[in-house]
Design goal:
Distance between the termini: 22 Å
Shape: elongated
Helix content: 55-70%
Radius of gyration: 19 Å
Largest sheet: none
Number of strands: 0
Amino acid sequence: MTNILIRNVLPEAHQTLVRRAKARGLSLQQFLSSELNRLAATPTVDEVLSRVEANRGGRVGLGQAVEDLASERSRR
């Protein structure tokens, strides 16, 4: 595992993050680690659009599209 040091966090932001961590029964480090991992696992709009662009041109029926979408959503 690697470490990240973040400087110059506003005191209000720090207090909010501490409060959110406490509400989940986590330390601030555990909370921030899980949030960063979640953020990294969620593709950006640009990444999604790039994937769509790379796969365009094909034809998928409505049933297959609904099934694929449900499958993607269940991964989260």
